[in-house]
């Protein structure tokens, strides 16, 4: 897995870091941290990032994905939890549950599971007064 740092990330926070898993590469385990991941290989395990997780057209994930934004153009068997958005592209196939404030499916996407869309305040009880 290669890591590319965004030159705009002058503070070294890692927020602009984008990691890449190429075709033919396999990763098993846990990934967590700041930045984003682009996967064109195979991931098995758990991925928790504050940026974006992109499963490319040739990418496969048997994983729990947690990120700000998740884009699936390949195959995902597992759950996708996005704090901002989850997108399943035209070549995407998801078997599992999706939870995010915004969820979209392109024409041609395949999905089997449940979708939960809530704003950050939706689960809180409203009070009068």
Approximate strand percentage: over 45%
Q: Which blocks of ≥5 consecutive residues have pLDDT under 50?
A: 1-14, 121-129
Major beta sheet, specifics?
14 strands, mixed
Distance between the termini: 54 Å
Q: How many structural domains can be distinguished in the coordinates? A: 1
How would you portray this structure in words?
By secondary structure, the chain is an all-beta fold. It has one domain (16-116). 0% of the residues lie in helices and 55% in strands. The chain contains no helices and 14 strands. The chain has strands spanning 2-5, 17-21, 26-33, 36-39, 42-49, 52-55, 60-72, 75-77, 80-88, 93-95, 98-99, 103-105, 110-112, 115-116. Strands 1, 2, 3, 4, 5, 6, 7, 8, 9, 10, 11, 12, 13 and 14 form a 14-stranded mixed β-sheet that branches. It is globular, with a radius of gyration of 15 Å. The relative contact order is 0.12. The model is unreliable at 1-14 and 121-129 (pLDDT under 50).
């Amino acid at each position: 897995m290669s890591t590319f740092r965004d030159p705009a990330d002058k503070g070294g926070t890692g927020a602009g870091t984008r990691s890449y898993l190429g075709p033919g590469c396999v990763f098993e385990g846990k990934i967590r941290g700041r930045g984003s991941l682009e996967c064109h290989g195979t991931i098995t395990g758990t991925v928790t990032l504050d940026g974006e997780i992109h499963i490319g057209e040739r990418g496969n994930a048997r994983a729990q994905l947690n990120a700000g934004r998740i884009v699936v153009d390949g195959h995902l068997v597992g759950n996708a939890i996005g704090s901002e958005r989850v997108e399943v592209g035209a070549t995407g196939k998801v078997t599992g549950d999706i939870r995010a404030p915004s969820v979209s499916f392109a024409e041609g996407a395949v999905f089997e599971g449940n979708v939960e869309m809530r704003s950050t305040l939706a689960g809180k009880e409203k009070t009068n007064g």
